[in-house]
Write a structure and sequence with these properties.
This protein is an alpha/beta fold. The chain is 45% helix and 16% strand. It folds into two domains: 3-218, Spore Coat Polysaccharide Biosynthesis Protein SpsA, Chain A (Alpha-Beta Complex), CATH 3.90.550.10; 230-339, no CATH class. It contains 13 helices and nine strands. Strands 1, 2, 3, 4, 5, 6, 7, 8 and 9 form a nine-stranded mixed beta sheet that branches. A hairpin with a 5-residue loop joins strand 6 and strand 7. Helix 10 runs antiparallel to helix 11 (283-297). The protein is globular and about 60 Å long. Residues 1-8 have low confidence and may be disordered.
């Protein structure tokens, strides 16, 4: 960034909020990937969510060597949503970027992100990521082909297909003023990224995208998202909150409604199909809750899935047919095992 642009930004252009909890093994790589970027007009706020390992030692060494690093040490473990809120409250930058401490940022990413934001002044920039597995296998997914078709700058109502993108917080850099305008705060529980991503996209007056993978999304088989339990039922709370926020602020156009609904149903099916998430004793309850949201938020214009199996699964959610969904899940799991496929997360 030129000296003139630096003078135009007396505060950092970007506040990068890094969540830290149980990520000692990967934290140093995460921090170095950010601090070594050629673009330097940012602050890094590391939020230690009472990490049970030696992550704090790594953070202290990092902060001692770089004035851009600040550490927030929470008194108790509050979870991702509330930890992000703490980082957001401490942020001073024009934009904010939420990163998880076990992921990493690719070289040159910040420069490209900043250059695009300077040119467009967009409220949000969205970009790609790559899933990286422990064995080194990696791939792009999560409907990222939508990035290639997006206009240069737009509102979500003009390109609602972007609402099909997997709803992660770390593939977006958001204008902090947009979040404060609506008083947005992350909610408690996993899947908190659903309401953040969808509401922010709907609320943004201008969105821009870069069809490049800027984040290495580490796939950890011990992560909270892969652990089974009733906490995965919170997916319904966060989808309900997304609908509520968008409706309350009158941001739901018919096209956004149809695409969001299609995304929601596919998300439900994806979680249901992942046997490491929903326990066997909760599967019928999961289907009942999915059917309830199907009834509540069904749009007039349904998007018909192109894949026959998806059409059957969608119909099963609509009718609450646990038997159909469970049978299809078991067949799919058997075929995946035969192929040696790696399951991906939405």
């Amino acid at each position: 960034m030129s000296d003139l642009l630096k003078l135009a930004h007396p505060v950092p252009m970007i506040s990068i909020v890094v969540l830290v909890h149980g990520v000692e093994e990967w934290l140093d790589e995460c921090l170095r990937s950010i601090l070594s970027q050629s673009f330097t007009d940012f602050e890094l706020i590391a939020v230690d969510d009472r990490s049970p390992d030696n992550s704090m030692d790594i953070l202290r060494r990092c902060a001692a060597g770089d004035a851009r690093v600040r550490i927030l040490s929470l008194e108790e473990n509050v979870g991702q949503g509330l930890a992000r809120n703490a980082g957001l409250a401490a942020a001073t930058g024009e934009y904010v970027w939420f990163i998880d401490g076990d992921d990493s940022v690719r070289p040159g990413a910040l420069r490209e992100i900043a250059d695009r934001l300077i040119v467009t002044g967009a409220d949000i920039i969205v970009f790609g990521w790559e899933r990286v597995f422990p064995d080194g296998h990696s791939f792009r997914g999560g409907q990222q082909e939508r990035l290639a078709s997006a206009p240069n700058i737009f509102r979500l109502s003009e390109y609602p297909e972007l609402a099909m993108l997997a709803p992660f917080p770390w593939n977006k850099v958001v204008k902090r003023r947009l979040m404060s305008r609506y008083g947005y705060q992350f909610a408690v529980g996993i899947y908190e990224d659903v309401d953040f991503s969808l509401f922010m996209l709907a609320a943004a007056r201008t969105v821009t995208v870069i069809n490049k993978a800027f984040v290495n999304y580490r796939q950890r088989y011990s992560s909270a998202m892969r652990a089974s339990g009733d906490k995965h039922l919170s997916i319904f709370d966060h989808w309900s909150r997304a609908w509520s926020l968008i409706n309350r602020h009158k941001l739901l156009s018919p096209k956004i409604h149809s695409v969001m609904f299609a995304h929601m149903i596919r998300h439900f099916v994806s979680v249901f199909n992942n046997e490491s998430r929903v326990q066997s004793g909760s599967r019928k309850r999961f289907v009942v809750m999915a059917q309830e949201l199907h009834r509540e938020f069904r749009p007039q214009d349904l998007i018909r899935p192109t894949q026959p199996s998806h059409r059957v699964e969608n119909a099963a959610i609509a009718t609450g047919s646990y038997v159909v969904l469970e049978t299809m899940r078991r067949v799919r799991a058997y075929r995946s095992k035969r192929r040696g496929a790696r399951p991906g997360d939405m």
